[in-house]
Amino acid sequence: MDVLNTPNLMEKIVSLCKRRGFVFPSSEIYGGINGFWDYGPYGSRMKRAIEALWWHEMVEVRDNVEGLDSTIICHPRVWKASGHLDQFSDDMTDCKDCKSRFRVDQMEDPTTCPNCGSKNMTAPRAFNLMMKTFVGPVSDEEHTAYLRAETCQPIFVDFQSVRIAARQKLPFGIAQIGKAFRNEINPRNFTFRSREFTQMEMEFFCDAESSMEWFEYWKEQRIKFYTEKLGFKEGDYRIYEHEKLAHYAKAAIDIEVKFPFGWGELEGVHHRGTWDISRHSEFSGEDLQYMDHDNSRKVMPTCVETSVGVDRMFLALLAKAYDEDTAATAKEGMTEDVRVVLHLPPAVAPVQVAVLPQSKKLKENAEALYRTLVRYFRCEYDETGSIGKRYRRQDEIGTPFCVTFDFDSVNDNAVTVRDRDTMKQDRVNITQLRDYIEEKIGL
Ligand code: ATP
Q1: 37 CA to middle of ligand 1, Å?
Q2: Nearest-angstrom CA–CA distance, 359 and 383
Q3: All CATH 3.30.930.10 domain ranges in the chain, comma separated
Q4: Which residues line ligand 1 (CB under 6 A)?
Q5: Arithmetic mean of pLDDT, 48-61
Q6: How far is the CA of 267 from the centre of ligand 1 (A)?
Q7: What is the pLDDT of residue 331?
């Protein structure tokens, strides 16, 4: 189904996420907290699978990218140096009548309240998005610290330590996955704009001369990630080239994809010049330049960044995967029934293989098979309800393969593997099953 032309798609996704334990509001029994979301049993599996896939493709298979897992709270000077304390703000305006607050750049007409239509709006004021806390027992200015607004700043701060420890030479990159926090004025569109979210960022350090080539290289690599690893096709994504660039940047693009509310930014590939590293050099007093022994010169590394939000990728994948079809039914009062299917890429599906005994009498054999498969794939065992119902349950969470252990299996040591998308069934010998599934998943 086309993401942009499916009526009520967001409502359907939000309701499916809640019903099946993908994502639900944080602190829900207290009424929730705006802009914060919890990932439930299936959601946390899928989120981790997305992160693992990114980490594998960006770090593990590359010998020129190192990993980092830094703290969320850094020295407050980090955010002074990066410019966040002075400039990381959005303009907001308040409606004096209904007390709603809006981000000015998201309003069609900043003089009119989108909520109640009043013209009684405050003048726009800058609102800093950094989240504050206190470190130590005293809550005063001196002990104020900030939750990181992006995962990349600690990468710049740790640049020399990582480079020396990993014995890397330019060009090389440092990647990190972790939480970021922004006091967004108007969290909305489900997890798309949250106040706490997870980023996957990679900073690639090179010399200025080759930096545009690296920019093109990473742009291409990231597009390939979506097309080759996650099944995005032409038309599912588009590239937005920034016209207005930061004074230090040479180029910047966004990879935009279709969300249920329209096109939206999923990932940015940015040329950041030497801005961050030189600012941290200046503010810390540490020389963060790189000694290029081959050319006997010191260089301030230029940086190309790839930056994506996990929560947005998760939402984009659900939106792209969501499908409904109708099938004839014998249910009383109905002629057809709606089947909800998530056509998720097997690499990120929360359950990759469901093991279903044809009858509870086959529990022992089916459970033994499940226990073998669970060592290689994300699996689930389900023996309750009719086979049709169990298929439905799995389709709804995007399980690509359902393995049914039936009465014949006891004699022929084979099982039926049903494909979620084609609904085709293959009879596969249990000794071949792992290879069969691995090949289909593309492992
Ligand atoms: P936007 O313009 O949508 O606010 P941004 O340009 O400020 O995003 P960046 O600072 O470049 O975003 O952050 C990199 C990535 O982090 C984004 O492409 C997005 O995937 C993710 N991201 C940023 N802000 C949020 C948020 N509030 N909630 C969820 N993900 C976010």
Answers
A1: 16
A2: 7
A3: 3-73+150-318
A4: 150, 182, 184, 193-194, 197, 199, 265-268, 307-309, 311-312
A5: 98
A6: 8
A7: 66
Mean pLDDT for all residues in the chain: 95
291, β-bridge pairs: 298
Residue the block writes with tokens 């966004």: 254
Give ranges for CATH 3.40.50.800 in the chain.
Answer: 351-441
Rounded CA-CA distance 312/237 in Å is 14
The two three-digit tokens of residue 115, written as one number: 């909520």
What is the spatial distance between Cα 300 and Cα 276, in angstroms, rounded to a whole number?
Answer: 10
Instruction: Identify the CA nearest to 155 among candidates 50, 312, 314, 307.
Output: 307
Nearest Cα residue to atom 24 of ligand 1 = 193
**Ligand 1 center–CA 309 separation, angstroms:** 7
- Ligand 1 atom at minimum distance from 184 CA: 27
Q: Which CATH architecture has domain 3-73+150-318?
A: 2-Layer Sandwich (3.30)
Q: What number of H helices and E strands is found in the chain?
A: 13, 23
Q: Which helix (H) or strand (E) holds 13?
A: helix 9-19
Name the token pair of 7: 């009526």
Structure-token match 């979301």, residue found:
37
Q: Count of CB atoms within 10 A of residue 424's CB?
A: 9
Pocket test for ligand 1, best of 23, 237, 307 (most atoms within 8 A of CB): 307
How far does residue 396's CA lie from ligand 1's centre (Å)? 29
**Residues near 46 by beta carbon (within 8 Å), at least 6 away in sequence:** 22, 39, 314, 317, 344, 348, 349, 350
The CATH classification number of 351-441 equals 3.40.50.800
Please state the atom number of ligand 1 nearest to the C-alpha of residue 199: 16
* Residue pLDDT, tens place only, 248-292: 889 999 999 999 999 999 999 999 999 999 999 999 999 999 999
What is the per-residue pLDDT for 245?
A: 92
Q: Is residue 135 within 8 Å of residue 149, measured between CB atoms? A: no
Residue identifier of the C-alpha nearest atom 8 of ligand 1: 265
Neighbours of 352 (CB within 10 A): 25
Helix-, strand-, coil-residue percentages of the chain, each rounded to 5: 35, 30, 35
Single pTM value for the model: 0.94
CA of 279 to the centre of ligand 1 (A): 22
* Three-state secondary-structure class, residue 67: strand
Answer for the pair 394, 351: CB distance below 8 angstroms, yes or no. yes
Ligand 1 center–CA 111 separation, angstroms:
26
